Each structure stands twice: as structure tokens, then as C-alpha cells.
Automatic annotation (TrEMBL):
Main location, first listed in the record: cytoplasm
Functional description taken from the UniProt entry: Catalyzes the release of premature peptidyl moieties from peptidyl-tRNA molecules trapped in stalled 50S ribosomal subunits, and thus maintains levels of free tRNAs and 50S ribosomes.
InterPro entries according to UniProt: Pept_tRNA_hydro, Pept_tRNA_hydro_CS, Pept_tRNA_hydro_sf
Family: Belongs to the PTH family.
PANTHER family per record: PEPTIDYL-TRNA HYDROLASE
Its EC number(s): 3.1.1.29
Protein name per UniProt: Peptidyl-tRNA hydrolase
Site feature Stabilizes the basic form of H active site to accept a proton, where: 96
One of the protein's GO biological processes: rescue of stalled ribosome
Reactions catalysed: an N-acyl-L-alpha-aminoacyl-tRNA + H2O = an N-acyl-L-amino acid + a tRNA + H(+)
Oligomeric and partner information: Monomer.
Amino acid sequence: MDSPWLVVGLGNPGPGYAATRHNVGQMVLDELAERGRLTFKTHKTNATVAEGRLTPGGPRFILAKPNTFMNVSGGPVAQLLRFYSLEPSHLIVVHDELDIPYDTIKLKSGGGHGGHNGVRDVIAAIGTGDFTRVRVGVGRPPGSQGAADHVLKGFSTDERKTLPNLLADAADAVEQIASDGLTAAQLRFHTAR
């Protein structure tokens, strides 16, 4: 009855990428793990995983960061679903989103990849787009800067001031999706604050 939620934070491995916009999904997982005092450990599915409840009596979570590069995230996600015998309906993927302004999150279930190569690979690997996404806005690149350069750079000084709030909001959204459902979380986070 109490099926856990698999929450996957997309990003690139290694310290060189850790603080970039592309890794904001993994930063959200760090926030969630901290809330539940959970520790990430190496897992045989080519991911690092932290398991447990964030609040006593709350939903069970499997927080996972693929050890692969963003564009090949699908393999570890498919392996995790198989390992834990979970359906995609219990998968939440947290990722950066260029088409959403910085400091904004959007929640959705299903649909295409919207040009996001990590999401594209997850859909291809698990054979469906029917999973929940927490899309963390990193905004469009300024001027003529390319999208790839933008997402692989760190946050600006101004952005870093509000980054903790953005990560907390995204983590709150993950918790609310698991406890109250997607619609309730959308009502809360899609309403202008």
C-alpha cells in the first residue's frame, strides 16, 4: 500500500558540474535529503541513492542521482524503477528548465520532453512520458549566449541570493506531490506569490 516515491534529480556527475544550473535537480535532492537526515550511498543501479521518510509517518522516498551525464540519464532511471518494482506513476523527475523564468517552478505529469535531453532519454528508456516532473526555472541565456553554455555555468551573484528559496520551493513541491497529489501542489506553486 505504502509504495515509495522515486525522486530523480537530473544533472552531470563530478564536482565541476555540481554548482551549475544544469544540476539544480540534484541540488533539490540534497535539500530533501537534508530535511530527512538521509545519506546518499552508492547503488548498483549506477546512481547514488538515499532512502527513508522525510517526516515521521510521511511518504517513503527513494532519492536518486544518476552517475551518468544528463543526456544518458534514462538507463539508471529504468534500472531504479525495476530494482524497486515501481511504476512510472511513482516517479518524480526534478530538472532544470530554460523555458521557465529563474526562481519559478512548474509541475506537470506526462507530455513530451520539451527539448530537454535528460528528460528525452528518461522517456526513451522507460517507454513512457507518464511521470511527474518538477521543472525548476533557470531562465533563458542572456544575449547571444548558447543554451548549453548557459546551463553549464554557475548561478549569478544575484541568483545565488535567492537560490536557497528556489531549492526549498522545489523540495516542498516534491513533498506535496507525494503527500497530497499533483493537483494540490500545482494549485499552490502555480499561483502567483
